[in-house]
Amino acid sequence: CSFLRGTYGAVIKNCLPQPDFLACTSLYCDGSSKLFYALAQKYRKPYFYIDVPYHHEHKYALGYVSKQLENMANQMAEAKGVKLDFDKLRQAIIYSNQAREYFVKINELRKTVPAPMLGGEAINYAIMLAHTWGCKEIVEVYKLLYEELKERVDKKIPAVIGGENSRILWRNLKPYYSDFLMRYLELEHKAVVAFEEVNYVHWQEMDPDKPFIGLAEKMLSNPPLGEFKRWLGETMKVIEDYKVDGVVEFDQWGCRHLNSGTQILKDALAQKNIPLLILDGDCIDSRDYADGQV
């Protein structure tokens, strides 16, 4: 996977800051755990591996994951010679809940027909969803986005001028080195990307007084964890909620977790007469990409 190769290449070229610790989870890229272990050896720094069990529904799972998170936090604090500041951790959970509330409202507004937001823009928020929960600034970002979208919905301003011909659900990420694909779909053919699964809020509000339990619940609620029928059920719900006409799946080379369920999804969609377009490609390596071929 180019995401993993790119990360290791950046390390070799000294493009990344020196870490104090390396941490990753088993959810759901099996290559990342191997990469981070290799980097821990290179940097000679402590490595933490959070095992998120496949059988997420079992009673032991919540305590098992939350205890790993708590142990990691305490070991990091001890290694740095400081005491874990529970008040700051509690505040981070509060900020995370506030940001989540705004993003849930954003996703509700995006159910509007015609769509008030282009998917080519919205999919970029997936990166912030992954890396900025818990900080004060992201609450302001999502609050502003919600207010802008609400104004567009109230004034009946569509994302695609002249209306939309069809509505698409986008699975996985996109090629980040070219905006051709999204513009071709949404602006030339008025096939708006009504929603992207990477922006799906699958977790409930967390209890600030039980931060490790809340974070563990968040991890265990991730739809791709467990049997594929769980993920499939969430996908079908999104298709219904957003009045989707067709699905596009951009399959990243080497992503076994995503690609392994594609045929099951295709068969399920066929029963509902919903077409699925599978695009094999790479999100960050442009060497195997051509606009014309796509």
CA radius of gyration is 20 Å
Extract low-pLDDT stretches: none
Q: How many DSSP H or I helices?
A: 12
Mind describing the biggest β-sheet?
4 strands, parallel
The proportion of residues forming helix, as a percent range, comes to 40-55%
Please tell me the overall pLDDT: 95
CA distance, first residue to last residue: 20 Å
Strand order of the largest sheet: 4-3-5-6
The total of beta strands comes to 6
**SSE string, helices as H and strands as E:** HEHEHHHHHEHEHHEHHE
Q: Give the overall shape, derived from the CA principal axes.
A: globular
Give me the secondary-structure topology.
Layout: H1 2-12, E1 22-25, H2 30-43, E2 47-50, H3 60-80, H4 86-109, H5 119-122, H6 125-131, H7 136-154, E3 166-171, H8 180-188, E4 191-196, H9 211-220, H10 228-241, E5 246-252, H11 256-259, H12 262-271, E6 276-281
Parallel strand pairs: 1-2, 3-4, 3-5, 5-6
In short:
By secondary structure, the protein is α/β, with parallel strands linked by helices. It contains 12 helices and 6 strands. The protein starts with a helix and ends in a 13-residue tail after the last strand.
Description:
With 294 residues, the chain is an alpha/beta fold. It is built from 12 helices and 6 strands. Helix 4 runs parallel beside helix 7 (136-154).
